[in-house]
Specification:
The protein is of the alpha+beta class. α3 runs antiparallel to α4. The longest helix is centred in the middle third of the chain and has 32 residues.
Length: about 170
């Protein structure tokens, strides 16, 4: 499935473009308008960058927390550092392991969350930002021929941006 996304500055142009696409015989069920009064980014299925950040962080937590515990435990075992002298060697190893696990969790949160927020959403974040700024999107999904025909029609409306995606 191919997609074509055109960014239009206002509702009037978006509705005019939709009408022009309809008049050229494009199926209504393959044309979507996103913006105020129409579908939202979530209803259409644009990826939420915050959700991607959470997924990235939780994926890393499953690896980094146990690894951090093992690394902290082994580091303390090899160096013999006494964190709290009164609790003995095993207690110090366990405290070092817990500190390592906490460090792994923080690393997962900052690295996994930051990467998910910055790159996990692909082009969805710029489109969300445009919708939040009051712009409208026309999204056409269909064959390559259909998106090529829609591109030709939409160019006459001088969209701010027009981008095709092959699926």
């Amino acid at each position: 499935m191919n997609y074509l996304v055109a960014v239009l500055p206002n509702r009037i142009q978006a509705e005019a473009a939709y009408t022009a696409l309809e008049k050229e015989g494009l199926p209504k069920d393959q044309i979507n308008i996103l913006g105020q009064g129409y579908k939202s980014a979530d209803e259409f299925g644009f990826i939420n960058p915050n959700e991607q950040a959470r997924k990235g962080a939780s994926r890393l937590v499953t690896w980094l927390v146990p690894f951090g515990f093992a690394a902290g435990y082994l580091f303390n075992l090899l160096t013999g550092i006494e964190i709290i002298p009164a609790i003995g060697a095993i207690g110090n190893h366990l405290i070092a392991g817990v500190l390592g696990a906490v460090s792994g969790g923080l690393g997962a949160y900052f690295v996994g969350g930051g990467v998910g927020l910055s790159v996990g959403s692909g082009d969805a974040l710029p489109y969300r930002n445009r919708l939040n700024a009051g712009k409208y999107l026309i999204v056409i999904e269909g064959t390559e021929e259909l998106t090529r025909q829609a591109t030709r029609i939409l160019r006459s409306f001088e969209p701010e941006n027009i981008q095709g995606y092959a699926g």
